[in-house]
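Support case: adenosine-5'-diphosphate complex. Customer-provided input:
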Amino acid sequence: MQTPSLAQPMLRLRDIHKTYVMGDQTVLALDGLDLDIFAGEFVSIMGPSGSGKSTLMHIIGCLDGPTAGSYLFDGIEVAEMDEYELARIRNQKIGFVFQGFNLLARTTALENVELPMLYGKRKDRHERAVIALERVGLGDRLDHRPNELSGGQQQRVAIARALASEPRLILADETTGNLASQQSEEIMQIFQELNDEGSTIVMVTHEPDIGQHCKRLVHIKDGQVLDDEAVPNRLFATNVLATMAAERERELRRKAALASALLSAEPAGGLTR
Ligand SMILES: Nc1ncnc2c1ncn2[C@@H]1O[C@H](COP(=O)(O)OP(=O)(O)O)[C@@H](O)[C@H]1O
Ligand SMILES: [Mg+2]
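Agent response - structure generated as follows:
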């Protein structure tokens, strides 16, 4: 019986290959990739489009298997797990936040978060869903459907859904992709809080300033790890958001001063003095 320990990585990938065969064409998406990720890490996978980032995330998430190579989750070879064990890992140990949100359209935020927990036979799924939505700042949007929410709010519903079952590992693929910078910061703030509380997070982004919020950057190219480094000057979303708010305030003051200067310059007659 293998038990997780501090010395043992949570995820250990060795010489991972993944080939996709389409007709007579073969694509080598991962080409001998090695990676260790320990509990408590906050890793950003970066790299150009087509470099294999999403393929890697699917393998890490046990949604797809490698063509060759070894992948140990908590010391256990994933390829040797049966369907039941795989489902248990996906449902209880991993929270997924993938591109396009995958929210059900005619379904409220609350139901979207509750649904995946139906499979886990969780009796407290309603309470957990409410807590998760409050956690991401949507406690007042429980009954809204996706089309009644902004892009950033929909993304936060997807995060609430991922964290409601309190997974040890959160996987996020291009989560901030189509969001405005303030919304992206709000998402990163949630991730940083979750990581501070002990969640291990692996996310994919192609935006360098988003990667700066993580603790470790893994650069991927042509299906291999090109570079692996600690984040030198880490950004903290709470600080970035405070700076953004201060800038908005300054801008508002500047406009107010301009408006009042224009008013006082108005020729007599136009205004009462
Ligand atoms: N399901 C698939 N079938 C065939 N080829 C795929 C499939 N998924 C990805 N690929 C190919 O594998 C390579 C890596 O893709 P992907 O992992 O999605 O890269 P990234 O997320 O870094 O943009 C690309 O060349 C892509 O076209
Ligand atoms: Mg991708």
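The longest strand covers residues 25-37.

Case will auto-close in a few days if no follow-up is received.
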